Amino acid sequence: MKRDWDLIRRILFKLEAQAEAKCYLQDSDIVGFLPETVSYHYKLMKEAGLIEAIDYSGMNEVNFVATGLTWQGHELLDKIRHDNVWNNIKATVKNKSLDLSFEAIKTAISTLIKVSL
Length: 117
Known about the structure:
The structure is a single chain. With 117 residues, the protein is mainly alpha-helical. Helix content is 56%, strand content 9%. The chain has a two-stranded antiparallel sheet with strand order 1-2. Helix 1 crosses helix 3 and helix 4 (83-95) crosses helix 5 (102-116). The longest helix has 15 residues, at 102-116.
């Protein structure tokens, strides 16, 4: 399965909004995506240190429930919160013919911040 950065961004927003209301986010809580896709992204985001999640996976399925943002997750969301910044990051990475990886996103963020200052 291919990593979807727009889905990752949506999950970060949803977890931030859900922080006060309830203490977990199921894979079915993200509308417009298959639960298996969302759960897989929870797994990836947990491995990257962006979210805290509980693994309920079985032998034949990936099943994660997101329980909150980590410090690193909050930091990333703060940097990609605004649509124009997010679109600039994606355009910068694409113009350089790079894959939209975590490292490329962090580099693009740093570059955009330097240019803005």
